[in-house]
Amino acid sequence: MLDDLYPKVTPGPPKPSVIMQPSVFSMPPGTERYVVEGCGAVLIPIETGDRVTIINDEGGQPCEVIAADKKGKIDPALVSLTADGAAGGLKALLTSSDQSLRGLRMGLDARGIDLAQGRSTNFFDSTTPAKDQVEFTAARDGVVIIAAPHPNGAGAMDAEAQDTATPLVVMVKRAIIKPHRGFELPDPLADPVDDIRVHSATAESFFVKAGDYIQIIDKDGRQCTDFECFSARKLDKGIEHALDVTTTRTLMGHAYPMPGLHAKYYDQEMLPLVEVVQDTCGRHDAFALACSAKYYDDIGYPGHTNCSDNFNTALAKFNVSGRPGWMAINFFFNTAIDEHGVMYGDEPWSRPGDYVLLRALTDIVCVSSACPDDTTAANGWNPTDIHVRTYSGKETFQRSIAFRATPESEPKMTKQTGFHDSFAKHTRNFVEYNGYWLANCMAEHGPIKEYHAAREKCVIMDLSPLRKFEVTGPDAEALCQYIFTRNMKTLPVGGVVYTAMCYEHGGMIDDGTVFRLGKDNFRWIGGNDYGGEWMREQAEKLGLKVLVRSSTDQLHNIAVQGPESRDLLKKLVWTAPHNPEFDQLAWFRFTPARLNNESGTPFVVSRTGYTGELGYEIMCHPKDCAEIFDAVWDAGQDHGLTPMGLEALDMLRIEAGLIFAGYDFSDQTDPFEAGIGFTCPLKSKTDDFIGRDALIRRKENPMRKLVGLDIDSNVDAAHGDCVHVGRAQVGEICSTMRSPILGKNIAMARIDVAHAAPGTELEIGQLDGHQKRLPATVRQDLAAYDPTKSRPRS
Q1: Of 126, 172, 129, 168, nearest to 151 (Cα)?
Q2: Helix/strand/coil (H, E, C) string of 702-726?
Q3: Whole-number mean pLDDT of the chain?
Q4: Which 3 state secondary structure label does DSSP give 292?
Q5: What letter does residue 591 receive in the DSSP assignment?
Q6: How far is CA 78 from the centre of its chain?
Q7: DSSP letters of 113-130?
Q8: pLDDT-based confidence at 2, cuts 50/70/90?
Q9: Do the Cβ atoms of 794 and 730 come closer than 8 Å?
């Protein structure tokens, strides 16, 4: 009877929420993780009993270990090891000009460690399998230096030998687990002028000279900090013009500045105050005020500590008038505006040690807070400290943005390619692309002229950010056959094939090219780092004897494209007798080569491209980039050679019907929907590969198709614009451009198959999708220019 009166309940206390997040927030107490990049090194303080494990993450990477006591004396017995090497790799790294090792050099100098006569303990070799590991325990307090030197000792990868340098992962298990007082501060970027701790729920003000740098660090991760600054000269005159985010958004055209072309913050009179030099988080807020008393009053927390009142207290020493609510740039505050215009927020993206580096453009008075909000997820429900360091303007820091290939990856800062200085002679307009700075367009020419040069003469452009992976070992062919949609068994040595890489459901991970260097040697060149991670995961799952090692930083590449590219390059390319002569290089073939003669600088040249024209790509080590560029440039003067940037490249590839990740395909798109169904030979490739069953099903039951559109309007369409038949949306624009050679707007669009037939009339919706329409017609071919590919084949 009672059961009928009361509902059934689940017995016991409530279960905690299950949240999957990066391991940095969930590692066991006393456990620390470090990544030693290929051709890099780290210094780690250790104490008696600490256990150190070194993992050869991608395989085939040598390791050098040096231990030193607290007095700086090198002693391998400190970690119960015996020295068996001269530490030649580490010494070579430290004598290089690599700025990423500046912190290590500072750490060695501060501890008086002289490596000149030091010897190392060496682990691993070129045959070491991925994930192999070694372990040792500290016998006394001191430091351990762990290096990942180049495998061949020369510091430069041999493109034929595929001897690339790859990361090591170091795990440290502390013998004594100390009460958790937060994460350790990262090493300073240089010798600090000032170190300022902004304790939780407080604010600190400080003065910074013009040209000096300000590093604002999220010490423990997921903590917001409001930042404001004023021109010190204006304050001296009694003018209190603070950094103004509305003015900044208007002038920069962005929600908030980031390193690069749109990097400055202004006051209300449009005076530039600071510029962003580096950013390892990439997610901030420039819309909301700093939290205020009224904000907490209105949500039911009267009297709550707030950033605006903390600003008033901190700025009083500079005689700045108080305000009930401060405009500010809210670093690490994760907000966005949804499609209904509603601002929402969530936990910050920032990890422990993430930072923003600013450069003062005039003498400024600054204030930074450690936000006290514990009523929302704004600070991860756990407000913590912020730390500020300032550095002299005499220091040099490259503009950079951090990116992570996976949630577990360490941040990698934007780099300059080996060709950067060569292109910098022609432009200052560089944009961040896939972890590198690439030229957007040239100062003298502009994208239209660069486009015509590619169609009529020849161009040279930097494509170094393409991700390269060396796939080697007895099971290399088996892995490639299983990973890629194309048939690797029919790919000859010296051959290149364009292919897709798919998940089990048929969605695309990436597209790219596979080079076959030997029976058991392949090179995958794609658009993202995750392709390599995916290949390693599958190899480990299947127990295959194969290494998949990243070589992106060891192989940089330029494209030389256009009708005169062959005549230009044949002046420069020397090939060995057992390889094809340059004139014999067929479409989608490659060969090792040298510059001018047998003793010239080595490189790899392939007859490939992304422009729809006859063209070639040249890969070489970064140290040889300037020489290679100069040789091509000098030889190209008789052929109208023009440097080209990303804007012109985008025009060329859209005309040619060539797809681009994030625009024309995603992991929700299969190769048939992406217009590259020819990469899936489901009948002739009889071996199984990842996604095959799903692709068979999706091919037999197509839903959408990538088509070419001719747009009967001079009004530009845009990526993401909806495509309609009457009221109904039947697709969306993927890529679009105004074609100089065809004299009209064209697009690639993904359309429901019911409306994808050539000649179908469609409408492109703008504004709300209905108030403004552009007429369009489905073309016969996806490519608007040379659909038969006669020009690259020529």
Answers
A1: 126
A2: CCEEEEEEEECCCCCCCCCCEEEEC
A3: 95
A4: coil
A5: E
A6: 38
A7: ---TT--BEEE--TTPPT
A8: low
A9: no
Tokens of 684: 């002739």
Query: What's the pLDDT score for residue 255?
Result: 94
pLDDT value at 246 more than 70: yes
Give the pLDDT of residue 8: 78
Tell me which residue of 220, 439, 245, 247 sits closest to 335, measured CA to CA: 245
Residue 172: strand pairing partners: 32, 52
In sequence order, what DSSP letters do the residues of 135-204 get, joined into one string? EEE-SSSEEEEEEE--TTSSSS--TTTT-----EEEEEE-SS------PPPPPPSS-EEEEEEE-TT-EE
Strands lying side by side in the sheet with 496-502:
496-502, 508-518, 521-526, 467-472, 547-550
Residues 6+ apart with CB under 8 A from 464: 417, 418, 419, 436, 438, 552, 556, 557, 558
Can you say how many angstroms the Cα of residue 164 is from the centroid of all Cα atoms in its chain? 19
Structure tokens at 581: 């002569």
Alpha-carbon distances, residue 567 vs 586, 642, 758 (angstroms): 14, 15, 38
Nearest to 377 by CA among 344, 347, 333: 347
The H-or-E segment that residue 518 falls in is strand 508-518
Are the C-beta atoms of 736 and 719 separated by less than 8 Å? yes
Q: pLDDT for 447-471, tens place per residue?
A: 999 999 999 999 999 999 999 999 9
> Which residues on neighbouring strands pair with residue 345, listed in sequence order?
335
**Residue-wise pLDDT tens digits, 324-346:** 999 999 999 999 999 899 999 99
Longest dimension (CA), the chain: 99
Is the CB of residue 359 less than 8 Å from the CB of residue 211?
yes
- Write the single-letter amino acid at 1: M
Is it the case that residue 1 has pLDDT exceeding 70? Answer: no
Strand, coil or helix: 75: coil
Instruction: Tell me the DSSP string of 535-575.
Output: HHHHHHHHT---EEEE-TTT-EEEEEESTTHHHHHTTTEE-
The DSSP result for 45-71, as a single string, is: EE-TT-EEEEEESSS---EEEEEE-TT
Q: Which of 346, 351, 230 is nearest to 282 (CA)?
A: 351
Q: How many CB atoms lie within 10 A of CB 291?
A: 29
The CA distances from residue 59 to 88, 123, 146, 544, in Å, are: 20, 12, 16, 13
